[in-house]
Amino acid sequence: MEYLLLNTLNGLSWGMLLFLISVGLTTVFGVLGVLNFAHGSLFMLGAYLCMQAMQYFDSFWLGLLVGPLCAVVVGVLMEKFLLKQVYGRDVSFQLLLTFAVLLILDDGVRMIWGSGYHVVDPPVLLSGVMSVAGQDYPVYRLFLILVGPLIGALLWSFFHFTRWGKTIRAASFDNIMAEGVGINVPLIYTAVFALGTWLAALGGALAAPQQSLVPSMGEKIIIESFIVVVVGGLGSFPGAFAGALLLGLLESFGTEFAGRMQMAIPYLLLAVILLVRPHGLFKKGV
Amino acid sequence: MGKRFLFIIVTISVVFLSGIWAHAASTAKIGFTYIMSGPFSAYGQFAKQGAEMAIAEINAAGGINGMKVEGFFEDSTGKADVALRAIRKLVYQDKVDMLIGLDSSGVAKTVVPAIEKMKTPLIITHAATPDVTGSVCNKYTFRISLNLAQNVKAAALLAKETGAKKWTTVGPDYAFGHQSWEYFEKYLKELNPEATFLPKNKVAFPPFKTTDFSSYITKVMSSKPDGVFISLWGGNLIDFVRQASDMGFFNGDFQVLMSLGGAIEVLTALGDKMPEGLWVGSRYWFQANDSAINKKFVASYLKKYGAYPSYNAHGAYSAVYAYKAAAEKAKSLDKEGIAKALEGLKIEIPTGLVEIRKGDHQAITDAHWGKTSAAAGFSHRILKPIKIFKGADITPSIAETGCSM
Asked: Which residue range or ranges hold the Leucine-binding protein domain (chain B) (predicted)?
């Protein structure tokens, strides 16, 4: 019984982190039509910049605020000077370009912060353990479980209730018509990419007190995020949420029950979904 | 006009040829292959630092057999096929006299059989699988560092002392993790027939790319063992220790042994988050040896790079010196001569006196274990007390290694 609870919590906390990364990836794809391979590197950048800001301000919360915002600057430059060139072109151009950005960012991080491991402390408020139904569980992990849905709800409300959100959705449905009715589509694209970058970087900053910082740390998470996004349906918001939860839980319970097969679970899930529902669990639409 | 033209040709030829001739005659070329990119690039970085320090020292002291040493560095990226390509480039294109390197057991098992065809001696400094100086050994392959069997034998000796009976493991899900557990089981069973080991489906082998270990931690804790043998290393170990501490893994419900927890890069990254009082091993520990050569190595490294040397820096540093000793013994850089000279070579390196055994080319070297302790003047844990297991006591016999050359 206690394993059931612990594994559920393990799966939820990992799944929520995965959700933050995937939702950025899926939003960028939904609006810009770009599959951003460098998304994991932006996650890494968020973690490193959070660490840097933490050292500067001596506060995790300020690091969490400032780090991802600095990453957004990189994201905006990337969109303005690089991604712009490949909009509407064959997907192979996008993959090559974003893969190049991934390599540059990975090496850039190595040059600035070195190739060694870095460790970031969780804030005092969130360290230690808390009792959940009689089981001690790390407070920071519970915090992650809460933060995921919170960010998700905020994003959802933004897209559905604000003018900006509605404009972005309009631009993603038909950018030519949107342009025709006077919407500044290039600006929208930049803003959406900035949002996607912010989500990836925020995920990195939130992961920092959990996992060591090391160049190329985005490699693992980008693969799982791609799986989440495909499982949930490319461009689908609730899809990313459901996909991330599903993958997180499957992985944590898989460790207990699947033995060495655990490693294959994400790919099996992907294969099953592609066979049964090739468009993912949820239909396309931001 | 004709004379002048001839003069230019002759001058150019002389300059050019003497340049080539001088180059060929005055350098000993060593090719290094390590992980230089990706999440484990720190290991390549350390090795490069150790190697460059040794090369600089040797060159300042007159070189090898009067020749300057030159290092060529290639990135294995941790992948076997890339490593093999890098080594081929070093041998056939850069025409190196000697090879040093290899971080991963998986890489080593692919490269070692190919070395025989390239007829170039290789000293392995990190990859720890017993197979490369065992079932797949050959006349050109040597290892200067502590191997998995030696380190795990020491772990088993300690495990016996703890008195814990029911053992489980957490190790990376590839050759290294699985072999570590197999050897631990084999050795501890011999030492303590009462010891029991959890079956494969109850132990934890997280994939190499795991960053969230929570479900593995829950799995191991819920199996209620008396002792846990951990063979995770690098970033995997750092992530595991932090997450496991949060989840109460180190609350003293069971004994914990970490075969590579004494690696300086792990201890420095974890700082005071490494729990105290755990037995940890390492392939080199900077305080384990009082010799002059070790003190000099640690002091120069600290001065040059601002950090204590890691086992990988030590391995690469020592391998360069082993090459020097072999070249002096052979009185040439001839590859066959070097391979012969490395056999049975006895050399003092910072970790102590080692002998590269003739029968399997494995260095007979001591294993260092210690208990993690806080100490004044260090921002990270150090090993205290230190326990030294003599190379002769922990190295399997040649018959056991399965090596036949």
From this structure: 28-367
Residue with tokens 């220790």: B241
A209 close to A140: Cβ distance less than 8 angstroms = yes
Which secondary-structure segment (H or E) carries B101?
strand B98-101
As a whole number of angstroms, the distance between CA A113 and CA B128 comes to: 29
SS3 A243: helix
Q: Using the beta-carbon criterion (under 8 Å), do A136 and B41 form an inter-chain contact?
A: no
- The answer to the question of residue B3 being in a domain is no
B160 & B247 share domain: yes
Cross-strand pairs, B368: B282, B388
B-proximal residues of A, 236-265, CB under 8 Å: 251-256, 259-260, 262-263
Q: Are residues B186 and B130 in the same domain?
A: no
CATH of the domain at B78: 3.40.50.2300
CB pairs under 8 A between A and B: 117
Query: Is residue B96 located within the same domain as residue B154?
Result: no
Closest by alpha carbon to B153, among B114, B115, B189? Answer: B189
Would you say residue B305 lies in a domain?
yes
Interfacial A residues in 156-215 facing B (CB < 8 Å): 207, 210-212, 214-215
**Residue ranges of domains in chain A:** 2-217
The answer on B246 and B388 residing in a single domain is yes
> How many domains, in total, are found in chain B?
2
CA distance B80 to B360: 23
d(CA A88, CA A91): 8
Q: How far apart are CA B232 and CA B282, in angstroms?
A: 12
Look up the domain containing B73 and give its range: 10-146+289-365
B248 shares contact with chain A (CB less than 8 Å): yes
Asked whether residue B98 falls in the same domain as residue B184, the answer is: no
C-alpha–C-alpha distance, residues B56 and B33, integer Å = 19
Question: How far, CA to CA in Å, does B221 sit from each of A123, B237, B252, B262?
Answer: 26, 17, 11, 23
| Token reading at A270 | 């992907």
ipTM: 0.88
- Domain contains B139: yes
**Judgement on whether residues B298 and B198 belong to the same structural domain of the protein:** no
List of chain A residues whose C-beta atoms are within 8 Å of the C-beta of residue B214: 10, 13-14, 141, 252
pLDDT in tens for each of the 286 residues of chain A? 678 899 999 999 999 999 999 999 999 998 888 889 999 999 999 999 999 999 999 999 999 999 999 999 999 999 999 999 888 888 899 999 999 999 999 999 999 999 899 999 999 999 888 888 888 899 999 999 999 999 999 999 999 999 989 988 888 888 888 888 888 888 999 999 999 999 999 999 999 999 999 998 988 889 999 999 999 988 888 899 999 999 999 999 988 877 777 778 888 888 888 888 888 888 654 4
